[in-house]
Amino acid sequence: xxxxxxxxxxxxxxxxxxxxxxxxxxxxxxxGKCNNPYGHGHNYTVxxxxxxxxxGQTGMVCNLVDLDGFVHTQILERYDHQxxxxxxxxxxxVPTTENLCIAIYDIVKRGFDKxxxxxxxxxxxxxxxxxxxxxxxx
Amino acid sequence: xxxxxxxxxxxxxxxxxxxxxxxxxxxxxxGKCNNPNGHGHNYTLxxxxxGAVDPKSGFVVDLKQLxxxxxxxxxxxxxxxxxNKEVPxxxxxIPTTENLAIAIWQRLEPKLNAxxxxxxxxxxxxxxxxxxxxxx
Lengths: 138, 136
Known about the structure:
- Chain A is of the alpha+beta class.
- Chain A has helices spanning 24-31, 64-79, 97-111, and strands at residues 2-15, 40-53, 82-83, 116-123, 129-132.
- In chain A, helix 2 packs across helix 3 (97-111).
- Chain A starts with a strand and ends in a 6-residue tail after the last strand.
- Chain B is 32% helix and 32% strand.
- The chains are: A alpha+beta, B alpha+beta.
């Protein structure tokens, strides 16, 4: 039988929302306080949801050791205590949490083969959360 | 269609072990969860039902009936139990969070005649949960 498994992880990072395609005034109007040139930070919570048949031998969709290991080396080590604007994926993209969702989805989709990736959900604060489940579900 | 979710909590112990595996395989695959004396969790259960809102009552489901079924079919059987030794589903199946979600669905689904079950979500810890939608 098919089940979904969700694991939550946390990392802390800084960012600045600023688009080179907009004027200074437009950036300030669009991003408000998030446009502060010195940046600011968040404690992000990432939820990774995978799915698949529950293995009859282990009772698992996938072994959490494998999922935790992948997320720690490929996601948390990449983003924790970093300035997101300095990373290659945000060289030409604004590091909004929407774009961060897509970036993390792409890393997990490309590299994790032990279960099917359903969705990435990120809480930027307790009040804001974002989800990306790939294009086919749009 | 409106979805309604009811939460409940239960506390239980379990361990992960497959007699078809060698002791080394059990230790490697299940890690600390393989301790035969068991360990415990405070589980949070979320049961989501769906349906049209009844124009007379304004309800998707009679919440009291849902609570009663959850208490009788799930909480009475699982709360403060050693899942491997006291809950028949887990005499043969490993009581992972995934299998708990499936077992709870199978306990509730035939009893919920007034509402259509949509999802069973089981939190083993705040950072780990499994969802079952009744999919084959």
